[in-house]
Amino acid sequence: MSLVHPREVWRAALHLCAAAVVFVHNHPSGDPAPSQEDIEITRRLKETGDMLGIRVLDHVVLGDDGRFFSFSDRGLL
Are 77 and 39 in contact (CB under 8 A)? Predict the structure, then answer.
C-alpha cells in the first residue's frame, strides 16, 4: 500500500501545462481490482483535476498476465 496526495500527483502535470492525464499504477498482488483506497484517490484526483482545468481521462490499475482495470471503461470517471 502506498499513499499519495493530490498535490504530489499534479505537480508534473502542472509543470508540463497538461490539458489531460491518465493515471496508471500496478498492484503487486497481481489482482487489478481497485481497492477502496484506489476508488477514493481517483475521486479526489478527478475533483482536483476539475478545479485545475485538467481532465482525468482514465485511471488504469495493472495486474498480472495482461489484466487491467480501467475506471473509464467501467464508467467510474
Answer: no
